[in-house]
Specification:
heterodimer, A: 405 residues, mainly alpha, Amino acid/polyamine transporter I, B: 111 residues, Four Helix Bundle (Hemerythrin (Met), subunit A), 4 helices
Chain lengths: 405, 111
């Protein structure tokens, strides 16, 4: 009982610490600066969606002892599996590049040395941790450090927002200006929160941690409470941005601008908190995305895989993350704007969601994998809603990016 | 013009933060550099935009030039470490930004 409570606490704490990544920071900051509290609903909706998806992927792993990719390959065959996998692979490489870019920008803020110079050293450090570390170190270590991102929540309270206005943002409303930009940001927020890498990674993690049916309660608690509390950090970024930037007419077009958001509350420490939060959140996410890319490749192609094995035991798995990490870092070496890449990638994530989620729905209703633990009507209803939402987002995301991005 | 007012606000906020020693000099300098570049790009876009009436274009250009000149002065003051002069430029920038916003409102454009 005590062990289970510890596992739940640890899972919740690491979910909070690991919730924020480059996409969540960028989209929440842009939303707050441009539309105040009006896009709070998008963060809440995205959080509800991701809670359900993460819970399902954990349940699938705990009951069937299959990761999501493993089960997709087995259930639908390699050829079918390649379609969602290739789409996911492409987007994940871009997400990884954006996360590396976030770390590099954090280092630029602190040192003044331009971010492209940091890309290869950051990639090397990432690779070294992946090579030497175990799954536990990677999962828990960076997430504990990631608790520094709670400074956004503290700053939100320090700035005394009008909670009535915040409450009004919980319900979706039409924008009074910049309609295309509003919907583009809403799409990007949903794309940032409903990141397929999260639930793919979560199911691989559950297998690494040797979850069984006894972990279903732990899984539900981590998915619900961890992701729920984690979204408070995103809401904190939105609130601070709304209170600090919107009255000044400052739009967040670059991370340099976002770096000013905590200086009103904490002075010089606010600047440091922002840079460190950005760096740690993005580094943690980069580790997860790199691992997810290697997990996905190994599982789709039937190779050995485990972060807990020595690299010589699963050489192709280790070679995969090595290639992905350095390939993604090259996008930063050539100086692609990390914020633009982030927003483009978040919109692209929305485009590929139906490809990823529809097979997932079929799998979650398959008795051979989940027995009596297969989806009920609530989970199916939510996932159908997500598919509908993802489909609409897929249609509007790219045109909106051109018009409003 | 929205981008121009946003970067003017950024320069103003970065200048204020630098005066309060809330941001490092290299950060303030780089941010001001970006603000100068963005204002210059906005001016070029303005010159190439056929939909703006000539009289409004002249006034908009004037506002952008004023902002650019003040931010340029701020850049020099930050480089020389003169916080009092940056404080003056911040106040001037606040007034100029407000003038631009008033102009945009009168012209029927959203700032």
């Amino acid at each position: 009982m005590r062990k289970k409570a510890f596992e739940i606490t640890l899972g919740i704490v690491t979910s909070i610490g690991g919730f924020l990544d480059v996409g969540a920071i960028a989209t929440a900051a842009q939303a707050g600066a441009a539309f105040g509290f009006q896009l709070v609903w998008a963060i809440l909706l995205g959080t509800i969606c991701v809670i359900f998806l993460v819970e399902m992927s954990g349940r699938l792993a705990a009951v069937s002892k299959h990761t999501l990719v493993d089960a997709l390959r087995e259930r639908f065959g390699v050829n079918f599996c390649l379609v969602p996998f290739t789409a996911e692979l492409f987007v994940d490489v871009l997400v990884l590049a954006a996360e590396i870019g976030g770390v590099c920008l954090a280092l630029q803020l602190i040192t003044g040395i331009s971010f492209p110079w940091w890309a290869l050293p950051v990639a090397f450090l990432l690779w070294l941790l992946l090579w030497k570390g175990t799954f536990e170190i990677i999962e828990n270590g960076t997430s504990f450090f990631g608790l520094i991102t709670l400074c956004f929540v503290v700053a939100a309270f320090v700035l005394h927002p009008l909670w009535k206005l915040f409450g009004a943002g919980v319900l979706p409303s039409l924008p009074t200006h910049d309609k295309a930009h509003y919907w583009f940001i809403a799409v990007a927020i949903l794309g940032a929160l409903i990141s397929p890498y999260l639930f793919y990674f979560y199911s691989s993690g559950a297998i690494e941690d040797k979850w069984g049916k006894g972990h279903l309660v732990v899984n539900r608690a981590i998915a619900g409470l961890g992701m729920g509390f984690g979204s408070l950090v995103s809401l904190g970024v939105l609130v601070v941005s709304a209170l600090v930037f919107q009255p000044r007419g400052l739009q967040v077009d670059a991370y340099e601008q976002a770096a000013l958001m905590l200086t009103e509350s904490f002075g010089y420490w606010g600047f440091i908190f922002f840079a460190v939060s950005l760096g740690i959140a993005c580094f943690g996410a980069a580790l997860e995305v790199s691992l997810n890319l290697a997990y996905g490749t190994a599982q789709a192609l039937g190779w050995n895989w485990s972060e807990n094995e020595h690299p010589t035991q699963d050489a192709r798995f280790s070679a995969s993350y090595t290639v992905f990490v350095f390939a993604a870092s090259l996008l930063m070496v050539i100086g692609i704007d990390p914020l633009k890449l982030t927003l483009f990638t978040m919109a692209l994530t929305a485009v590929i969601l139906p490809l990823v989620i529809i097979p997932f729905l079929i799998l979650m209703n398959d008795e051979r994998y989940l027995g009596k633990h297969r989806n009920g009507w609530i989970s199916n209803g939510v996932i159908l809603f997500i598919i509908g939402l993802a489909f609409v987002l897929a249609i509007v995301a790219i045109p909106l990016e051109i018009i409003g991005g | 013009m929205q981008t121009a007012t946003s970067w003017a606000a950024t320069a103003q906020m970065a200048g204020e933060a630098w005066v309060r020693r809330a941001v490092p000099t290299h950060y303030a300098g780089r941010t001001i550099d970006t603000a100068v570049e963005t204002l210059s790009e906005t001016r070029e876009t303005l010159e190439q935009s056929p939909s703006i009436p000539p009289d409004q274009r002249v006034k908009a250009r004037e506002h952008l030039q004023n902002l650019a000149a003040t931010i340029e002065e701020m850049r020099k003051a930050i480089r020389s470490g003169d916080r009092a002069r940056v404080q003056e430029q911040v106040q001037q920038l606040t007034a100029q930004k407000q003038a631009l916003l008033n102009f945009l409102e009168n012209a029927g454009a959203r700032p």
